Amino acid sequence: MITTAPAPIQTAPATPGGRAWRRFRRNKVGVAALVMVVILAIVALVFFVFDRLGIPFPMDPDATNLERKLLPPNPVNWLGTDNLGRDVLSRLLNGAYISLTVGFVAVFVSLFIGVVVGAVAGYFGKWVDNLIMRAVDALMCFPTFFLILTAVALLGPSIFNIIFVIGLVSWTGTARLVRAEFLTLRESSYVQAARALGQRGWKIIFRHILPNAAAPILVTAVLGVPEAILAEAGLSFLGFGVQPPQATWGNIIADGKTYILDAWWLILFPGLAILLAALSFYLTGDALRQAVETRSERQ
Amino acid sequence: MAAFIIRRLLVSAVLLFFISIISFFIITLTPGSPYPWGELNPKVSEEVKRVFREKFHLDRPLHEQYAFIMRDLFTGNLRSIKDERPVLEKIAERLPATLLLNIGALALSLSFGLMLGIYGARHAGRPPDVITSVIAFIFIALPGFWVSYLVAIALVDWAAVPILGTHTIGVAFTNGAQVFLDRWWHVMMPASILAIGGIAVQSRFVRASMIETLREDYIRTARAKGLDENAVFYRHALRNSIRPLITGIGMLLPALISGAVIIENIFAYPGMGRLGYEAVLERDYPTLVALNFVTAALVLVGNLIADMLYAVVDPRVRLE
Q1: What's the pTM value of the predicted model, to 2 decimals?
Q2: Which CATH superfamily is domain B97-270 in?
Q3: pLDDT above 70 coverage of chain B, percent
Q4: In this complex, which of B22, B156, B291 lies closest to A139 when CB atoms are compared?
Q5: Per-residue pLDDT averaged across A243-257, rounded?
Q6: Complex prediction ipTM
Q7: What was the pLDDT predicted at B320?
Q8: How far away is chain A from the Cα of B234, in angstroms, using its nearest Cα?
Q9: Contacts of the segment B144-147: beta carbons below 8 A, 24+ positions apart
């Protein structure tokens, strides 16, 4: 029996999130970038599991083979081998989870600090706001990467320390943003109403104001991921990243720089991986910003 | 104007105090051995450690340590652990090279960023804008150290652009102009690579501000009185791009100095970034405290200059 389904009626989604998602889907660059982010996350997860289960696919990233060292890309080693004969492709795939973990978790740390500090400054205002924002201004004067390098070097390089330090120095932007949102939102009538009903400050902050500031916070979070990925790559390159033999994108380049004129594949491919990962997050974040920012309808 | 400057200076003094506290605590509160030779090195006796702690006031309570370090820093007595030379002297040595590199990179960022941003805004929403936006994000996402190596490989093979140091080695120029040009010739490559990210950030900034400006009433007026689009764009709207240009100075400086840490290492460029990296390797923490303090203070000065330029350019700020 043939039934003709009635054509679905296009109605504007009721929630702001739904509307933003619809605007996001229309942005081809953004959708492509988001797909890349998802693929990267899946690859990182899959190869992390392979690593823990000891499945050598496509090859064992740490297996050395001095008879096959510094080979250019070939049918066996698609992206060539390094100076110890390790397969570059396997090392790239194996190192993916380091970059993404650092990216995501560092952003969570910085988001947590930034939201709390910004909310307190924006909600309570007066001298609290003044004190906090001057400290934020001062922290913003520091060259972030140098600060990270100093702290990681003193703490000792480990993935936990790297995440912690990157998160600890990169919350200032979020704090400023959250504070600005709070300054406007706390004057809104529904916050006045909540206050009139006698609700406490913390409850107003987290139940009433924060959810309404979620969109710009989400955008800064997504844009913070590539910053952390690039910072980690830089640290790895200088030798203060996650320590060998664990492969990271940065330390493959650092190891490869000795053979720069003979083995271009040791430099080119890990760099492309870093670029691709960072770019995907930046473009996703930018598309997200355009989707939630209703003000800039021209873009 | 005078009141504005005085208020700015007062705020800066407060910021400087916060900066000194932050740079001190990052080093001191970081758990981990303060000793350059490592905590558990069996060859170092307790006596040596005690002398070391006393020399750098590590046996005192924190607030006294802070007072000692700041006193020594401002009187120029803070000495490096590694070679016992005054830290300020070491930094002063590196300052000219650092200024040359960062000012060069800043100039490149602002000028090319302006051009790319204007181009994007001119074609807002259309394919040329989408393409320049993606290019801008590629620029931001490029790891500087990676570009440096790719460029170095290419340049060594195809061009005679110097990629090491600050001057041609083994040639003694007698002419001041020659020395000057030789310096710029050497700083060109690292400065360009350092500027890549800055160009992109600045272009996004200029583009957003131009698009914002194009929605103003006076632009509608200009269009309504029949001016052609070019005149509206370049005569009326572009004038307001001077503001993001100035803000860009304060915004880009910390990022440039950060990037310089890596770039200076690759190009063997003797600036403060390289000094910092060497100090990190040697756990030379008086130098680290001083470097963090001085670089942050330099950024603060940059911001202050930007604020004052702001007041000169924008009549609305002068009213404050």
Answers
A1: 0.88
A2: MetI-like (1.10.3720.10)
A3: 93
A4: B22
A5: 88
A6: 0.86
A7: 45
A8: 19
A9: B144/A234, B144/B193, B144/B194, B144/B196, B144/B197, B144/B259, B144/B262, B144/B263, B145/A233, B145/A234, B145/A237, B145/A253, B145/B262, B145/B263, B145/B266, B146/A253, B146/A267, B146/A270, B146/A271, B146/A274, B146/A275, B147/B193, B147/B196
